[in-house]
Structure formats: structure tokens, C-alpha cells
Amino acid sequence: MTTFKYILRDMWRLLVHHWVLGLLTMITAGVMLWILGITTLFSLNLENLLSRLESELVVQAYLVKDNTLDVEGVAARIQALDYVYSMKVYSPSDSLAKLQEKMGSQSHALDMLGDNPIPWNFEIHVHNAEDVTPLVEALKAMPEVDDVVYAGLVVRRISTLSRISSRVALILFILAVVITALVVYNTIHISLYSRREEIGIMYLVGATRAYIATPFVLEGTLLAFLGALAAAGGIIGVYFPGITMLRANLPFLNHSLLTEKMVIIRFCALLAGFGATLGWVCSYVVVARFINAITRPE
Amino acid sequence: MNINFSGVSKIFEPDIAALVDINLNIEQGEFVYVIGQTGSGKSTLLRLITREILPSKGTVAVGNVDLRRMRSADVPYYRRDVGLVAQDFRLIPSLTVYENIAFVMEAMSVPKRIVAERAKDVINQVGLWRRRAMRPAQLSGGEQQRVAIARALAGSPSLFIADEPTGNLDFHTAAEVMKILFAINAAGVTVVMSTHNQSIVNSSRQRVIELDSGRLVRDEKGGSYSG
After folding, report:
1. ipTM over the 0.95 cut-off
2. Which of A1, A81, A245, B60 is 20 to 30 A from A175 via CA?
3. What's the structural domain count of chain A?
């Protein structure tokens, strides 16, 4: 306990001695972790939106008009395809009734068609957007299938958007982590370098490496943690007003956005923990390397 | 704490022989002067004892422990038993006299109350209590040397290494420093001190180890120094 008090005092001395550098480190770490947090939340929301869109993607398969067709057999073969998540079978009469209901007061126009022109058809839901194209190809290869209707362009755009957003988020994540790590590493290195003579003396008069190193490691951890806390505060300050604005202007996004306060607060706590861990790892690495070099006997 | 050098040579890169085949034994409680011209290997010999450097050949043993085989984790604990005074004082500039001395005990996890008592004792011993709140830059060379001695005493070492402790001091201040070193030795602490000051060596006949170009040329009890 006594040693810990001395170590805390030394850490405080370090912070006071290099307060400008410490402040700059904290601000840089805070900005980078804020970018990291906002990017992650944006990415999660986009993932949510895309998942929802994907779950609403429907492939409509119309069979050829043939009274001798084994509809149940065709349905079983389609159901057996890997890409199929769920499937509904509509008879010609069900389909007509559905269409009439959709057309409402205009439904009398359908009477002019005479016989029901709609064949047996299936409404197929897929697991995700990437399953649509192979499913369509498989359906078109079946002789019993006359036509396949699906939102091909939408599917391709959703898939592309999903891929790009994942990559951009990953690049920003790596960039933010690398920059934060470098800033903390350099700050602690400068701190160590400015006290290299002192460190040599401390070791010479009997201070252990751990006693010398711990204040520097704590300094780096604290700076990154404070930066992460500031970033978390910034995220909460920006995210909720942003979400409120989006929901007011784009109501169709309502069910696709992360809005639960507890989830966001937990995410911010995780970010603060991540910042502290990053600070600890960087400081530990630089301090271990520096002290090893300075205390090694010739 | 006895010190034993057995066939010790130290060669610095690229090929500078600082010490060549040194064999000597220093017993617990002895006062030893290490003399010789500048570059004769005095500081190298002392730095081998403090384990700042390792021998290129041979064995340096302190208290029957071979310093080469000592684990790096044990080095701080060894150094706590070795009081070191360097010619350039090696004080921490950002700390006050009191903090420089207290620091050694803090690193040993000594409680604050005991640190305060012991620091007061050793600062009084070197006569600097009134200057305890000053930083090294505010002190004269002699005062800084006394702070370095007080710091070396703070951990109650059983071996005291002084590398030219009077090198930067006038005659009067040097005599004061020597008084302190003799008092330390009188308490049973082994003192090994390097110097090229003839009058100091000649004023108190102690064991003299003379080095010349890294070789041991004289080891004499009650010896003198004629330069």
C-alpha cells in the first residue's frame, strides 16, 4: 500500500510535469476514439437497416399455366433449395383475391380479364440479399417456372452497400486504433526520454523496474482512459439528438435504428474500457523497451 | 560485505582494455583507496562492483555472490545494500534535498513516518537540514556531494562506493567529506573510494590499490600516494 501511494504520487508528478503534452494526448485519443465510436454505431445502424431490408426481400416465382402440373412437388423442390428462408404458396384464386383486395374500389377492372390469368405462384423469402441471384438462377432453370419477379437492382445495391460499409468501418477502426496507439506511445516515450537520467539514477540506487515503470504505465493508461471518457461523452451528446432528427425526417428508419439508451451507455462503457486497455498496452510496451535498454549492464 | 576480483578484465568496444587481469580481495569493514591517473581504470573497477558493467573476463563477487550470475530482478535489492557516491553527484534535479534522500527509502517501500525520521537523521549527519527544501541546482558542489553521501547512507548500506567524491571540492570541503566517510567506515561499513588526491591519501594511511593503464600495480596496507 505504501509503495502504491508512492507510485501514485510519482504518476501525478509526471502528469503535472508534462501537462501540455498530456492534454494534447488526451484530446487526440478522445477525437480518435470518438471517430471510432461514431463509425461503429453508424455501421451497426446500417447493418440493422440492411438486415431489415434483406428480410423484406421477396422473390416471386410464377409457374406455367398447366392443369396437370404437380404444384406440391415443385413447391417441395424449391423449399429444398439452400437459399430459401421461408415460402408461401398461392393458388390462382388466392392470388386473384389478394389482387382484388389490393386494388380496392378499382377491383372491378379485373372482371374485364375474363378467366383468372394468374397461375400458381410462390412468395419466397431469402436468408440475405446475396442469396437472391443464385435463387433466381435456380428457379429459372426449372421448366415448371414461367417467370421470376424480384428487385434485382435493389438486391445488388444493398449487397454492395453492405460490403462497402463493412470495409469502411474496418479501415476507420484500424486507423483510429493505430493513431491512438501511436500518440500514447510517443507521449510516454517523450516522458521517459526527458527523465532518462533520473531513471538511470533510480535504478542505480535500488528502485525495481516495476517501481520505475508503473507510474509511466499508469500515466499512459489514465490519459487514454480520460480521452475515451471524453469520447464517450461526445458520442452520447451527438448520437441521441442525431437519432431524434433522423427519426423525425426519415420515419421509415424507425425500426432500424439503435435507440435504447442502455445499449448506447454500455457501448460507451466498452469504449472507455477499450481506451484504457489500449493506453495500458502501448505504455507497457514502450516502458518495458525503454527501461530494458537503459538498465542493461554494458 | 567482502569483495573479490578474480582474473577480471574489462574490454570496451572496439578494443579498449580498461582493466587487465585484476585479482584482489577486500574484507568487510576495510577502508580502501583506489588510486591512479585519469584513465587508469578506477571508475571501471567501481562500476564493476555496482554492476553497472559486467566483466569481459573473470569474476567479480560481492558477499560471495557472482555479480554476472545475479538475476536482473535481484540487482535493485543488491544495490540497496551498496551506497554509491559519484563524482558528478547523480542527484535528481527535479527533487529537493529531502526528496532525493527519501526516494531511496520509498523505493524500498519504507513507510512515510520512518522515511521522514531516517531522512532527517542522514541530512543532519551531513549538516544540511536547513537546506532540505532546496533543489540540487541551488546548492554548491560540496553541498551536492554531501547530499549524495546522505542519499547513499539512507538505505543503511554495508558497502559504500565513492568515485572521486572530493574531485570537485576545495581542500576544506573535501576534508569535511572525508570526515563523514571515516565515520561511516568506523560504523563497520566497507568503504571503497577512488581518488587522485595525494594529500587525502597521505593524510590517513589506509589500504591503497594503485592502477596503471588498467593493471593493478600496487596493493599496500597503510600506503601513500606520491602521484
Report:
1. no
2. A245
3. 2
